[in-house]
Design brief:
single chain, mainly alpha
Length: 433
């Protein structure tokens, strides 16, 4: 265990990870500290509304930018990276306006299709949340390229702090589910605004470097991003959010709220930690791919770190989740702990595989990404269809999608390892395929 800790204190890679994880630690402590209060201010049904809103926004955000933000790490010239970011933000603005028009025209029918007519009012807010996600995502990748890890750490703290403060304040005013939704959007706005301000201070010439012709040329050069990554990541977002949407439609808002709290209390902190490691890994593996060396070495080293960090908390979660949830959030939330224990294998493999799967994007294996997402969504849809024939209860359904996610995460992990090994055989300086 001591050796696992020591590896995080050596080398630039590990120092950058520690910088991000310090911000991540503060960022996760804030929502974890206020969640026991929120769980007493908001009933499970209102957490269910937030879960559905987040699911809709996450699914739409996957297509809003054309996924061009993933190309920001690829060009050698910083001016090209800046123009890719501007291109992606522009696309996000256009898509968000189109979504707002769609919400105005079809808000109530769409809410009814989601299984919750009270969602109609929040569909008008979803386009704003999608646009804020687009701004943040692009500036995050641009900051990642320039190793602005302290900036990224500050963003995490600000977003979680802003979200928690607004949700807590509105909860005390008894505003209902709107307090959770508005708090979530407020946190996004604070994070995007802070990121934009700090990027501007770091690079005052950021917007002056933008050239329409260069943007169009780069759009063509990296057209595989919208061609493969938009459908792949849209399917991926739908796959991730489908359980929440299906649980809401098939079992009601209360189970959806329990599921939301399990994701919030376990999935969010762990995704922030693995995301911090992934941000540094993305930059390191990108440089290694350009040089055609050390790709496998960096992959194995990062894999060991992820396993060392993930194993102890997941063992605790596996044995004590229901009791911990009952103690921290109140006895009425014990069911959320039971859900969290069922999802433990999925959380564990997701924590490990998600950062390492970035190899596929750096290697431009976008077709694999697309096929992988299609396969997972197909199996999730088969599971959902099974409910109508066998009448699964909610825990049986959760166990089913945990098995599907776990198998596909293992496939993704082995494929990512192969892509990393292939990176060592590339000619140094050659363009990614």
């Amino acid at each position: 265990m001591l050796n696992s800790v020591r590896v995080f204190l050596q080398g630039e890679f590990n120092r950058n990870v520690v910088t991000l994880m310090t911000g991540t630690g503060l960022a996760q402590l804030i929502p974890l500290a206020v969640t026991p209060i929120l769980s007493r201010l908001y009933p499970p049904e209102q957490f269910g509304v937030l879960a559905l809103f987040v699911s809709v926004v996450s699914s739409l955000s996957a297509l809003a930018t054309g996924r061009y933000e993933f190309a920001i790490m690829l060009p050698r010239k910083d001016v090209d990276a800046t123009n890719i970011a501007a291109l992606s933000i522009t696309i996000s603005l256009i898509v968000s306006i189109a979504l707002l028009v769609l919400a105005c025209l079809l808000g109530k029918p769409l809410a009814k299709a989601l299984g919750n007519e009270s969602m109609s009012v929040w569909l008008y807010v979803a386009p704003l949340a999608v646009f804020l996600n687009g701004i943040y995502s692009n500036l995050k990748y641009w900051s990642n390229r320039h190793k602005l890890y302290l900036l990224m750490a500050h963003r995490q703290v600000l977003q979680s702090g802003g979200t928690s403060a607004v949700q807590l304040g509105l909860g005390l005013l008894r505003t209902g589910a709107g307090g959770l939704v508005i708090g979530s959007v407020a946190g996004q706005a604070l994070a995007a605004g802070m990121m934009a301000g700090m990027v501007r201070r770091h690079c005052p010439q950021f917007w002056r470097r933008i050239d329409k012709r260069r943007m169009l040329a780069l759009a063509k050069r990296y057209r595989s991003c919208p061609q493969y990554l938009v459908p792949a990541h849209t399917l991926g977002a739908v796959s991730v959010q489908l359980p929440t949407i299906f649980i809401n439609a098939a079992f009601g808002l209360a189970p959806s709220g329990f599921f939301m709290l399990a994701e919030r209390a376990v999935g969010m902190p762990l995704s922030l930690i693995s995301g911090s490691i992934g941000d540094v890994f993305r930059q390191e593996i990108g440089e290694s791919f350009l040089a055609g060396q050390r790709c496998r070495e960096i992959f194995i080293s990062t894999l060991k770190k992820l396993v060392a960090v993930a194993t102890p908390p997941f063992l605790i979660l596996l044995f004590f989740a229901p009791s911990l949830f009952s103690l921290v959030f109140g006895e009425k939330w014990r069911v959320a702990g039971e859900y969290a224990r069922l999802m433990c294998p999925m959380f564990y493999l997701r924590f490990i595989s998600n950062p390492l799967s970035l190899v596929a994007i750096i290697a431009q294996k976008n077709r694999f990404e697309f096929l992988w997402q299609v396969g997972m969504l197909l199996f999730l849809m088969i599971l959902a269809a099974t409910y109508y024939f066998v009448r699964l209860d909610v825990k049986m359904y959760i166990a089913g999608f945990v098995i599907i996610y776990s198998i596909f995460d293992l496939v993704n992990l082995f494929a990512s390892y192969k892509f990393a090994c292939d990176g060592d055989s590339r000619k140094p300086g050659s363009p990614t395929p």
